[in-house]
Design a protein that fits this description.
Layout: H1 5-14, H2 21-24, H3 33-54, H4 56-60, H5 70-73, H6 77-82, H7 103-142, H8 145-154, H9 157-210, H10 214-232, H11 236-245, H12 264-277, H13 280-384
Length: 385
Amino acid sequence: MPNRTVDFHTIIQSLPRPQDPKKNVRKEASFDPFIKEAYRIEQHIVSLKEFLQVTRKAYLRNEPPRRKYTNHQSKASPQISARSQFEGSLFSAFPRTITHLTDNERDEIDFQAKMIIRRCMDRVKDLEEAERIRQENVRSKNAKQFSRFLSNILATPETVNSEDMLAVHRSGVIWLLNKRLMEVSQIQKNQQETRLMRAVEKSENQLHLSSLPPSQMMMQQNQKSTKSTLSRNDDLDVESKFQQLFDNKPTFPKPAAEPIDDSSDSFADTGNAFEEQLSQDQIQMLERENASMLTEMENTLNQVRDAEKALLEISTLQSQLSSQLAVQTVQTDQLYADAIEATDRVEKGNEQLVRARERNKNTRKMTLAFLIIASFVLLFLDWYD
């Protein structure tokens, strides 16, 4: 009979290999509800942190972006769209490509981030409360006389470490969640502080412009209009029209280096003289500029107030997280010290039990030897009689 082993191996290799179902089964069934909830909270925290990092440039940018950066910013879209399946509307409320954010969208990000942080804080508190109840139940069971007697007799380092190390492990999990929540809140706080600082700087610049004399305001307005006109259209016709518009602009004498009279009469006379030299179109343009600056300053003031309020709220959450983190650190250290102390006590108790067994072993040998000798003596006396 010919050897067909090579053909057999060739046919086996050509067939698809069956997959082991045990390898595809995840080990989530072995996780307790505490660890499952901790992983879920950690997933939300990581998602929020990634979203804040992706939208940081658009969040802190005040002016609209240029067109050439649109393709570059679209690289961040998979990170945002991949996270849209998580809880909350923070990731699904914004488009995939974020290059510019309005003030309302920034306020929405602040609100949603605050809600997610607060919700995660509440869940961490629930985990901490559940662990506290579990530890109280374990203590109440160990406090019974019969169970205490059995635990003293049958105690081993493994049984003691299983309870103590479980408490230490869960306390460390809670501490880690609080620490990551504090890091995310710090990122959000830094962004809000930067936004508030830029809004204040913008309002200060507007106040500086509004405090300038009318002549300088007119000159700056003319410069702005010149730049905007030249940037939009570089045609010669536009330049000629622009020059014709301001050909009749009056020239103002350069003020001499004299002490300024702060009286109201001199200021009013100077203002009236300046207004008489202006044309009607220039006066209307200054009035429109003044109204637009006033409206913009009011909007900026409202934005600063909203940013201060949001910053105060996130600072309050961060202070709460800091206090919880400090308390959790103390509790974790105490539980770890108690676990080490309990392990040492059990080890010392086991050593004493080993020594007692050795002493009992010697006593047992002496008792057995005495009984054997006494038996032989009784047999000898019986034989002698």
